[in-house]
Design goal:
The chain is α+β, with helices and mostly antiparallel strands. The chain has nine helices and 29 strands.
């Protein structure tokens, strides 16, 4: 993100912070060789999440190829939840339960690659050709031999050569934006209600989608493609339905997968050529980028209106909450968090981890995608001095146990592959002010993938169609709409909520809109934002036309360039919420 904005402290890069406890410990290097079958827990099992069997082999640290040293019969097998696979790619090397490095595999970009029913087929990894040879010759690639019935997507090219992509890699790349989304795709039958509750196009042609409960913003683009494309929906449903069909007939459960589109694409992949002098098959270890366009011109995502957590606070958290007023209890953050293969606790607050993006959809680089994110949340630890023991064990999926295992969510930081634009000065001041204040929880309602965190105003025009000059910013012969940044400000006790919208100008004037809610009915913040955003342009013009500077009830004026602008705004917000209603 741009300067002036920080993520909440629970968000940490996965590669440096979290480990996969099922993987081997110690200094030995291990290579991910292949993905085995899927297992679904029975009703007596403790872990309610579907899992995948991952095949690993030891690697010689002095090797140039970083390929497995031993016979495939000596591969190590570990079960991990399917949500963990967003971290896992064939060929990657791990050490002491963490990703160690990514070997420099052969990288190829297949341009104008045609994906359609005549070029694409699903084949098993152990399939043979008409001439008696194998798609994956054992002497060149023995690491799949324990899973010859696993599926790959084969794409035939006009040259006669073919591209072979393990289906688990297709799933990871095209749907692996979050562990929550992956878990749902492997839980058949997949219904659209499991992914989104509503979608449609507004009057400006922008796609607006409301994600299903507890799906993170990181999966907005993936879910939007599924919502607007039957091909993408069928591709998503195929993952779980193919597993269900295999289970029904007593076979090993290997998922099938297809591309979420048909048409041409520039596909950049990394892997290795097999039999390059003969049939010529390129085996893909990882997909690096795809240029096929998404079926929308602009996207605004909305998180579910269900804001309450899925967990029921247990004794530890009730004690911490009760002692918060007296400053005597808290929870120490985990120093060495690890994913374990069991159900998470029903009484511990969830934690989110971000992993650096490995996907790259080039089409999204030129499309506006924005929504909401938590900009600041005041944890109990800020008000307390004594700590409970940290919770090191984390688990993916919905909570379902009484163990001290914290629910975890993995999301992909896809914005790291998007050209980042620093927030403009007025927005930078506001973001800094939100970080400085210690009175309210802050939700940023205008999160953008490019880091600017501002969106253009929806311009007003009079009955003759003339747009007000006050809403236009001119730079020489160019002109554009003014931009705005918006926040939801919530008192920690939840008894008061305000919406703050600031429109680009030399003077910052926060437009404050009260939000009403009751204990029985939650706040539909997105509906409230849309309503306020439609009025803020007129309110902004009214504020700019007013010469009054002492407006304590509705706002506060300060120059963007003022030395103490951020601190002044932070103090004003604090006093605003501490003032009796």
């Amino acid at each position: 993100m741009g300067p002036g904005f920080t993520f909440p402290k629970p968000l940490e890069p996965i590669d440096s912070k979290i480990k996969v406890s099922a993987f081997p410990e110690g200094p030995q290097l291990w290579r991910i060789d292949w993905f085995g079958p899927i297992a679904y827990p029975d009703r007596y099992g403790r872990n309610r999440q579907p899992s995948v069997l991952v095949f690993l082999s030891r690697v010689d640290p002095q090797s140039c190829t970083y390929e497995g040293q031993e016979h495939h019969s000596q591969q190590k097998k570990v079960w991990v939840s399917v949500g963990t696979t967003m971290m896992l790619r064939i060929g990657d090397v791990w050490k002491d339960q963490r990703p160690h490095f990514e070997p420099a595999h052969t990288s190829v970009t297949f341009r104008e690659l045609a994906i359609n029913s005549s070029t694409l087929s699903l084949v098993k990894a152990g399939s043979g050709r008409a001439d008696g040879s194998f798609l994956l010759p054992m002497d060149e690639h023995p690491w799949h031999m324990n899973n010859t019935h696993s599926y790959c997507a084969q794409v035939e090219m006009p040259s006669g050569k073919s591209l072979l992509i393990p289906c688990m890699e297709l799933v990871r790349f095209y749907f692996g934006s979050s562990s929550a989304l992956l878990s749902r795709l492997f839980t058949p039958p997949l219904s659209t209600e499991m992914l989104y509750s509503a979608y449609g196009y507004d009057e400006y042609g922008k796609l607006v989608i409301t994600l299903a409960d507890f799906l993170p913003a990181a999966s907005a683009e993936d879910v939007a493609r599924i919502a607007t494309s039957k091909i993408a929906l069928h591709a998503a449903q195929l993952i779980g339905s193919s597993c269900q069909q295999a289970s029904a007939i007593g076979q090993d459960i290997y998922p099938m997968a297809r591309f979420p589109f048909e048409g041409k694409t520039d596909l950049k992949v990394a892997g290795r050529w097999l039999d390059p002098q003969g049939a010529g098959t390129f085996l893909v270890y990882r997909i690096e980028s795809c240029s096929h366009p998404f079926p929308f011109k602009a996207l605004k995502y909305q998180l579910s209106t269900l804001q309450k957590p899925r967990y029921k606070p247990g004794p530890e958290h009730r004690a911490a909450q009760a002692a918060a007023d007296s400053g005597s209890a808290g929870t120490r953050p985990a120093k060495d968090p690890g994913l374990v293969e069991t159900d998470a606790s029903k009484s511990l607050a969830p934690q989110t981890f971000r992993r650096p993006a490995t996907r790259k959809f080039t089409d999204l680089e030129n499309k506006r995608v924005w929504g909401t994110s938590i900009a600041k949340e005041l944890p109990l630890e800020q008000a307390v001095g004594q700590f409970h023991p940290s919770v090191e064990a984390h688990a993916l999926g919905g909570p379902g146990s009484d163990e001290r295992v914290r629910p975890a969510e993995l999301i992909e930081a896809s914005e790291s592959r998007v050209l980042q634009i620093p927030p403009p000065p007025f927005a930078k001041v506001l973001l800094q002010a939100m970080e400085l204040q210690q009175a309210v929880n802050v939700e940023l309602l205008t999160t953008t993938r490019d880091g600017s965190n501002v969106v253009p105003l929806e311009l007003l025009s009079d009955e003759d169609g003339v747009i007000a000059d006050e809403l236009i910013v001119r730079d020489g012969f160019r002109h554009r709409p003014r931009r705005a940044i918006a926040f939801a400000l919530r008192a920690p006790g939840g008894d008061r909520t305000l919406m703050c919208i600031v429109v680009e100008a030399e003077t910052i004037f926060p437009l404050m809109y009260p939000i009403q809610s009751t204990e029985e009915a939650g706040i539909d913040m997105h509906a409230e934002f849309e309503t306020a955003f439609r009025h803020c342009a007129a309110d902004f013009m009214h504020a700019q036309a007013s010469a009054t500077t002492d407006l304590p009830e509705s706002g506060f004026k300060v120059a963007v360039t003022a030395t103490e602008a951020a601190q002044s705004l932070a103090s004003w917000i604090t006093s605003l919420f501490k003032r009796p209603d």
